[in-house]
Amino acid sequence: MRYLLLVSLLILSCDPYRKLAKSKKLADRDSAAFGYFRRKQYESATPLFEELVGLYRGNPRAAEVLYHLAIARMRLKDYYAAERYFGQLVDEYPLSPRAEEALFMQAEMNYTLSNDYDFDQKETKKAIEKFQAYMTLYPESPRFPEAEKKLKELERKLELKAFHAAETFYRIERYRAAQVLYSDFLTYGTQSDLREEAAFKRAMAGFLMAEQSIKEKQLPRFTEAEEFYRTFVQEYPQSKYLPILRSQYEHTQRALRVPRREVGGTAGD
């Protein structure tokens, strides 16, 4: 009997919140949850926090519980759950002192979950949306520069995905799809290091597509590609791609027997 008593005391000394966690009193369970959190025992804290969220619903205390629940989940590397709880705090308690940080951290969780550009970009798009919302709502925040930096990084990732999708279609000679995707990239992309190459390949895809088309579609497709060519010449008159593109333009003219039309501003003129 004495041995069992000693064992019980040892267990309680190792886990001083065990009894509080089983209490029917809300205040006791609250104390246990935050006690576990302070001791970094997140596996023990999270189920108590999850229970308290429902019990405190509508009470300002719920925002504090949600915040600590989200942090605990994050430290357990359960980023999907952490993102969900930060978002719940923002949605249900927008006036809470924790709301600003929760919105930033929700974006941060999406950022953490964002894949490389070769894979699905659902989380990237969510992170962009949340960082944009944060920057709009809190333009004076000390976190603003970090949000802006990460937003640009995420936008770059989407642009790389769009560019490489166009590249894939170009390589397999799906020139219509490649041309559309290069055009989308040039419309929405901001990365100057890829724009010249995208503009070059858009025009090349147009000429190659015109050559492969049925006779009725050749001339209108050549005319469209020629317009892309003229745009390229105007924007990049010293481009290294210009001799290649001019050669392809002239080859397509001959192949389709299109009357020769001069395009000014090319290298060597």
Give the CA-CA distance, first to last residue: 103 Å
Question: Which structural category fits the helices and strands?
Answer: mainly alpha
* CATH architecture designation of the largest domain: Alpha Horseshoe
Shape: rod-shaped
Proportion in helices? over 70%
Rounded average pLDDT: 87
Could you list some keywords that capture this structure?
mainly alpha; disordered N terminus; 269 residues; Serine Threonine Protein Phosphatase 5, Tetratricopeptide repeat
Describe the structure.
Helix content is 75%, strand content 0%. The protein is rod-shaped and about 90 Å long. It contains 13 helices and no strands. The longest helix is centred in the middle third of the chain and has 28 residues. It has 2 domains: 152 residues, Tetratricopeptide repeat domain (Serine Threonine Protein Phosphatase 5, Tetratricopeptide repeat, Alpha Horseshoe); 97 residues, Alpha Horseshoe (Serine Threonine Protein Phosphatase 5, Tetratricopeptide repeat), CATH 1.25.40. α5 runs antiparallel to α6, α11 packs antiparallel against α12 and α11 packs parallel to α13. The N terminus and C terminus are likely disordered. With 269 residues, it is an all-alpha fold.
